[in-house]
Amino acid sequence: MSVNCTSLRLSYASYDFCLPITVYLDSDEFTIDKAWIAGAFILGLIVGAALTTLCVRPFLASWAKKKRQDEEEMLLDTAIAASPVPDEKKFKSIQAVPLDPSSKKAGRKKSSRFKRRKKVKDADEEGTEGKVELDEALCRGMVDVLSQTNGMSSEVEMAEQDLSAIVAMERSQDQEKETLMLKVLEYLLRKKADKRLVTENFCENFVKKTEQDLRDMRHMIDREKEEEEEKLKNDNKLSKDPQALETELQALQTRFNNKQGKLQRDYKEKIRTDLIKSSGMSEEEVESVMEKLTAQMSNLEEKRGQEQARQRRVLEERLAKRRQVVEYKGEVEKEKEETRSKQVNSMRELLTAKVLNGQLLERQNDELNAQYQGNLLTLYDGLGKEYSLQWNDLSEEMRNFRLKEMQNLAKKQDQERSMFAHKTQASSSVTEIVKGYHDLLSRQHAEQERLSNELDKKDVQKMEELNKEMQKMEERGIKDETEKLMDSMESVSDITNSDVTKIMKQHQQVMEEHKARQQREKQAMLQRLQEKLHQRLVSASEAEARDSQEQQMLCQEQAQTMQKVLASNIDLTEEAKDKILKQHEQNMQALSNQLQRSKMRQQKSLEMKLNQRRARLVDLQKKQEDLQRRSTQMNEKDHEKLEMELERQIAAESQKLEEARLAAVAELRRQIAAETAEALRAQDEEIGLLIGRLQVGQARRKAILERQDKTLKELQDQLEDKVTASRGLSGGAAEQILQQHNNIVEHLNQNMQRSRQTQKRQVSERIKLMRKQKEQEIETQLEEDAEEDYNEQQQKGAGYASLALMQSFLEQRHQRAMTELEITMSAELEKEKDEINRNIETELQRELQAQRQSLLTNLAAVSNLSHKELEDAVDAAVTGKHSEKQAKRLAKDLKQGIERAKTSMSMEYGAGDRQGLDFRRTRTDLEEGDVEQGGAAQHARRPASGKRFMKKKPAFAMDIHENGDDDF
Fold first, then answer.
1. What is the C-alpha to C-alpha distance for residues 741 and 198, in angstroms, rounded to an integer?
2. How many helical (H) and strand (E) elements, i.e. helices and strands, does the chain have?
3. Composition bias, kind Basic and acidic residues: at what positions (predicted)?
4. Terminal alpha carbon distance of the chain
């Protein structure tokens, strides 16, 4: 507390001064700050409300879950009848997972097999209209397999999932083909629009119309397929026979696949017809567009076949690994049953020994054994119910987690496809579009497969964690019941505490020995399962190789047949034959892919039907085992009667199973043969239509060219007559001009052959070098992958079987890579050779046409004909329809050529001395140097100007598209 002189009312003299001091006083009172108290109170309310909000929700959820479990347990307790005295054999009938397949959580309603992709709500957009298209094959996984009550039911579930995956693969590949056909068609039409051959408006409208037509076609097929499926499922006879229903569903799928293929082929022809009618392009331009479209679709079919084979290998590997898990689960359940039986038998033997020693009465022994068995049975029953409830909740959680992960992946992949579609507008090559989109889809399929495998592993891990938790609970319960038994034993008998302890130790030793033996057997079991996995994968690879060989043989037979057909058809040109062979190769690749998909689907359907029958046989065998366990509680006559009835049913079901297997295999072969014949028949019809169209076009072009050659030949004869007769030029000069022309033509042919051989040799060397480089790259990549896989297997502690399996896979990958490389390089070599032949033939025809024009020009120039005589000669040469228009064009071109020839030969019109003319062989573009003609020299065209020069219309060139009528 601070005071001063003024506050104390003291007075001092002028020479005095005041010294301020501070005095601290102790006080018992607290000074209250009302603002601080109010702020602390409000802050406490806010923090308390937040903590309450965060904590009350999990408490309420746990309370609701506990209440639901109590209600379900009460309902289950009321449904189970009490057993008076349990028998030890009943322990074997207790399953680790007494899961009810009809439970709301365990069961799952099966949707339509051919239903289009379903739209599910986006997990991140609750309350909004966000929808994600997700294939139903991605929504099912290992959790559905593990939820089955026995091995055969698991096999049926796995077959159904594989079948759904195959149907999804067919749907995905059809959509890929449709999308890429639209992209390629749009690209080709836009290129024509850049050249002013079609308008931008036509290109846009035609592509939109084509896209809408294809979409309507697909929706129509899907809608009809779903309606037919619904009719089959509602059929009373088929609903009682699942095998017959499955057979009809497979026939339905095959029939609609063939129908869809035929509609697509017909629509491709409709695209060609519509372009000819409405685009304004010539037929040759339309044929060029369709030929490029066909080439890209052929390339796509080859890529689809490779992707299809890859997905088939992935499915086979997944099935083999899943079967390994299911078999492991069955073995673990058997071990658990053996352990439970051993638990009871070991205690009975120990108590029986005390009866023999006189320490325990027979009645006391029976009571103690009955008490122990009953308590354990109650324990196992309660654990089984608890396991069933927890597994149902866990499986539902895993299904939701799978659905959420697949939705997130589907969203990401949809965005990738949208970005690629946007980038394709700036693509400079149609091949890049096809390759890029196919690679994108292949990568996305691989991502889906990796995510599915990871989720399957998580499902198995969750099941293992739950099993370990329940195993610990079971061990604790068994320990408690054993201790209760020891207490009861000590209270009702004369056995001392030390004897009870001894019995306990002996029992524990017996169970530890049993556990050690099971551990050794488990290691041997794991080794057997690993070897079985290796054998299954090897068998799958062998089956794939056999199927591939069968398809190659079929393609080779069809190729040889086509070669014979084309060889016997002499009306077709080599270009037309090449076009037919390319179309045939594309059709055979598409046919091979279709047959492989159909065979995969029908094989899975066969497995599913046989597994359904095996499941019924397993149920009968289980009933027989249960009957044997209850043999002591039943009348002997009733037991024998029931046992004989079950044996009769089992024998009848076994016979039906074998008959069904043989019939199904025969039906599978018949369906595949029928589908192959139908596909080949459709392919023959398409090739027949193509051959007919090419023959008609070839005949039309041949007639036009023959008419053109006839016109030029008659004109040449008229000029020769005028040269030798009308104007007095000696016959030797005309012969000299003709001889010069023949020498030039022969020289052109020789140069063409030399150039062809040189270019082919250069291409072969370049392809050989390229193949060697590719082989080195492939081997380097495979070595790196092998080293990486080997290190990964070593880190996981893989055994010899895994390393041998890895080595086998690497060899198969190397062999497939080398085969694909050989096919690719051979195709590239043939493509280069074909390109060389086409270029040389085009160049030769152009040079021959130029020499023919030069011949006519020289003859006309040296003849010194008047304009009237020149027109008379042209009129005499040109005959037929549209002759007046053609004659005027020929006369005009001939006059222009005469002027150029006179100038180049330094001649004047009407000169009399032609004996001193120097006729020398004209050099051609196939030779190096300058082009010399009639003593004058012209420099050879530069490569850069070749394209521009070829666009110029040469003199006397007949426009075969100008006249609509072909005069035949």
1. 42
2. 18, 6
3. 959-968
4. 132
